[in-house]
């Protein structure tokens, strides 16, 4: 068996949400106890989510509704990553044309950006937008062609729902990319930026952190891209048979968060 004793030295956990802590509106059984254990043992954690539509407060509310401990400061969304990037980017202007929902607008405004309705703009920032229209596509495309930097919060192609797979942020990004002829700068997983900014935000070292998630294509690949070790839990999207063909392979594969806790504590059987 692979040596997993390094897990005992991990101080910070960057944790995915859907598929790792819950599935839709159903909590994964051992998730609340795992977070409570992190708190009681003094280990740090941050919820890292590609969801761009919700504010951190809304994400935390949803977690608490499911019985999972969460405060606003525990949440880091792809909209916040985009806002953080703009704050640290070298462009002098902070005018943003936003294609998105409340979580994106809130993150941009709190970062000091001027959100414009048409232009001119220094950035076009796009996330999930269930009111996406031809007019928004037109304005985004023209602004990018005029020199605005195209940023996508995440390129998740689809949103799983009880009705089936619905168009995700990546589907809208593809439309703007096609219209403008420009590739977006991606903020959320699997890009490294979300993990890099999370590490910086917490002030921890990469060798004492781990990314925990259920999706090889997003969570695990983000950790690989950011050079942070990863744990794939088999409670959600990806299964063991998917690993061999995955672009990014996890450092560790475990069945549950309980298994992860036992390895960190050194009490595994």
Can you tell me about this structure?
- This protein is α/β, with parallel strands linked by helices and 269 residues long.
- Helices cover 35% and strands 20% of the residues.
- It is built from 9 helices and 15 strands.
- The strands form 4 sheets. Strands 5-4-1-13-14-15 form a 6-stranded parallel beta sheet, with helices on both faces.
- A hairpin with a 2-residue loop joins β10 (158-161) and β11.
- The two termini are 12 Å apart.
- The model has no long low-confidence stretch (mean pLDDT 93).
Brief overview, please?
By secondary structure, this protein is of the alpha/beta class.
Task: Give the topology, please.
Blueprint: E1 12-15, E2 22-23, E3 26-27, H1 31-40, E4 44-49, H2 56-65, E5 75-77, H3 78-88, E6 95-99, H4 102-110, E7 114-116, E8 123-126, H5 134-145, E9 149-152, E10 158-161, E11 164-167, H6 169-180, E12 185-186, H7 193-202, E13 209-213, H8 216-225, E14 230-233, E15 252-254, H9 257-265
Parallel strand pairs: 1-4, 1-13, 4-5, 6-7, 6-8, 8-9, 9-12, 13-14, 14-15
Antiparallel strand pairs: 2-3, 10-11
Helix pairs in contact: 3-4, 5-6
Strand order of the largest sheet: 5-4-1-13-14-15
Rg measurement, Å: 19 Å
Poorly predicted residue ranges = none
Helical residue percent?
A: 25-40%
Number of helices: 9
Described by the principal axes of the CA atoms, the overall outline is globular
Notable features of this structure?
about 270 residues, 15 strands, about 35% helix, 9 helices, 5-stranded parallel beta sheet, about 20% strand, alpha/beta, 6-stranded parallel beta sheet
């Amino acid at each position: 068996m692979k040596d997993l004793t390094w897990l005992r030295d991990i101080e910070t956990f960057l944790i995915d949400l859907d598929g790792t802590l819950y599935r839709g509106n159903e909590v994964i059984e051992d998730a609340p106890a795992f977070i409570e254990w992190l708190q009681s043992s003094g280990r740090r954690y941050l919820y890292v989510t590609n969801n761009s539509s919700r504010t951190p407060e809304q994400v935390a509310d949803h977690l608490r509704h499911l019985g999972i401990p969460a405060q606003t400061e525990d949440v880091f969304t792809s909209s916040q990553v985009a806002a953080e990037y703009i704050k640290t980017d070298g462009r002098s202007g902070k005018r943003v044309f936003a294609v998105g929902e409340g979580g994106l607008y809130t993150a941009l405004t709190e970062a000091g950006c001027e959100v414009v309705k048409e232009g001119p703009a220094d950035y076009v920032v796009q996330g999930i937008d269930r009111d996406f229209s031809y007019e928004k596509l037109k304005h985004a495309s023209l602004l990018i062609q005029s020199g605005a930097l195209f940023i996508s919060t995440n390129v998740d192609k689809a949103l799983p729902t009880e009705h089936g797979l619905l168009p995700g942020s990546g589907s809208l990004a593809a439309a703007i990319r096609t219209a403008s002829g420009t590739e977006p700068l991606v903020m959320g997983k699997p890009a490294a930026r979300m993990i890099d900014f999370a590490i910086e935000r917490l002030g921890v070292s990469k060798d004492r952190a781990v990314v925990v998630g259920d999706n090889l294509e997003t969570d695990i690949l983000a950790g690989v891209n950011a050079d942070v070790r990863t744990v794939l839990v088999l409670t959600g999207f990806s299964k063991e048979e998917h690993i061999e063909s995955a672009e990014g392979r996890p450092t560790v594969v475990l069945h549950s968060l309980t298994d992860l806790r036992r390895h960190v504590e050194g009490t595994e059987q």
